[in-house]
Amino acid sequence: MAKIVAVTGNEAVANALRQVNPDVCAAYPITPQTDMMQRFASFVSDGKVDTEIILVESEHSAMSACIGAAAGGGRVVTATSSQGLALMWEMLFIAAGTRLPIVMPVVNRALSSPLNIHGDHSDAMGARDSGWIQLWSENAQEAYDNTIQAFRIAEHMDIRLPVMVCLDGFITSHSIERIEYLEDDEVKNFAGEYQQLYPLLDVDNPKSYGPLILPDLYMEYKRAQHEVMTRVSKFVLDVAADFEKLSGRKYGLFESYRLDDAEIALVILNSAAGTAKDVVDEFRDKGIKAGLLKPRLFRPFPYEEVASALKSAKAICVMDRADSFGGFGPMYMEIASAMMLNGSRPILINKIYGLGGRDFMPEHAQMVISELDEIAKGGKIKTFKEYIGVRE
Amino acid sequence: MTTSLTLKELSKKEDLFTHGHRMCSGCGAPIAVKQILLASDYPIVASNATGCLEVSSCISQYTAWKIPWIHSAFENAAATISGVETMYRALRKKGKIDKEIKFIAFGGDGGTYDIGFQSLSGAMERWHDMLYVCYDNGAYMNTGIQRSSATPLGADTTTSPAGSVIPGKLQPRKNMTKIMAAHGIPYVAQASPAHWKDLMTKVRKALEIKGPKFINVIAPCNRGWRSKTDDAILLSRLAADTCYWPLYEVENGVYKINYKPKEKKPVVDFLRPQGRFKHLFARENEWLLQKGQEDVDREWESLLKEAGAE
Q1: Which of A71, A74, A212 sits opposite B70 (nearest CB)?
Q2: Which of A199, A202, B91, B173 counts the most CB atoms within 10 A of its CB?
Q3: A3-247 belongs to which CATH class?
Q4: Which residue of A has its CA nearest to B51?
């Protein structure tokens, strides 16, 4: 029986973590994640979870402690944002390379400099190549649902990889939304008992973690990591199917919104997709065949599936809430790669929007869709990469 | 039944840090690690900071560790073992583990005094039930003898080379053991593989105490110290006899000197066999030798005072 509540994204994710009841949580405060771990710390203090919490002295130590705890042989969580994720960067690769199923909500926030505490995707995009699975969430409901599913994906015996659950700082983390909570028992059963694999705490069967691997074998390790990533999307879908049976909410590798016959399309992540979908509807009402693709699984990226979903589009705008300075936005590069696999060559433009919490307004989406409409009709391409919503 | 600390009894125990590791011959660190693991009658789970000990003890499918062992990075041996120890508490609480297990983190001086200092300080403050062991060879030996904050005054290293203008490292070393004592943790000690019984007694004592513990062990490195391959134990002994490396412990804030040389030798006795100090014996560098002796004398006096043993 679902329970309908009005809560913030941080509160919803903290509640998902309470329901999953991990063995160990390591946490360090950083805006806008802080409130999530504060809530979780209250669950610990009030005996609502069995979790042992460690309040470490940095995010670097948070991830290091998570690595030790996960190797120990149990379920582990932490959460962070922005500079915290950047400070963890070294350890992210080690968590993934050691194949430890750690789950980490990332409340997306801009990176310094200049200092800015508001929502954008630079933090998680910077961790793109770390070997973590990344699930992205449009709103608090998706963040809650993704967090619950993340444990099943991470801990699957054929995967054993860490998972990041991304949600937009402030826009999602601090806004109150309508959420459907699952019952505690339902989540507990869905997550299941943690299954150990080579636990470090098994002193009768000692294992060495973290060897030195020289050029004779290093590449084989990396190929194994690549290969496991190629199998992830299947399990993400399996877990989503089970989750749908439980919740009635359907998840895929991405969301296709009015894409079937779309001639122009937006690709956009997280909260801004909600705004953009409304604008797509407006254009559809005017007879313009617009559609939208909202990625959910960003790592591993489902290139073939995305290419197939976008096959009818003649002009696509990839919207990035992060930049790769001197290159295109990170999402643009993925979509460009996907379209190459497709063999189709739609016109692909890139807009950088919403950095450091700059509002993404319906008029921004209107402007972009109008521009795409012109391009699809044979109009001139103004520029391939452009910042929108900026003061001149 | 605990094994008595006699060579006869200890020789019957299995070495948990085995032959086949690739530490340099004559290195002090594996001797200390063997002694530490032999001292315990409890099962041990260890973490290891990146460094000589780590890169030489677990390569590909070959491991010298017969205990569960984890290495993750350079600056976080304490944070990593704090995670393992926390998982142990979580699983023990749930009845999934019933054994009494002890936790040890090993780090070199670079991984302890410098890059790992924050994570060590944090783990101690969080009061994890763990022992942190620093094997102090006084420089970044693994990367090729670069100066660290444990490098003694005047030492010639690859990043504080004794040149025609600058005579080696110009700063004294950090007093890490005292800094750890200042954390107010229940047990801190300084030890040496030359005084093996003292070291092993300290390890035993530490493992019986709940909470965070720190032991600093001198670990001569013949490559970095430019000393004879078989001088590790001799130099460890000279370090104690000159009071360059006093053997003492701080238990619940109470200082105790464990070894007081009958006759305190001059520091030059410890410096002379080491090529890294060769330049200090040139006339123009006499002031450094003098300052080094003064530093040791002052520290020793202060230690005597702390221990009420003046």
Answers
A1: A71
A2: B91
A3: alpha beta
A4: A212
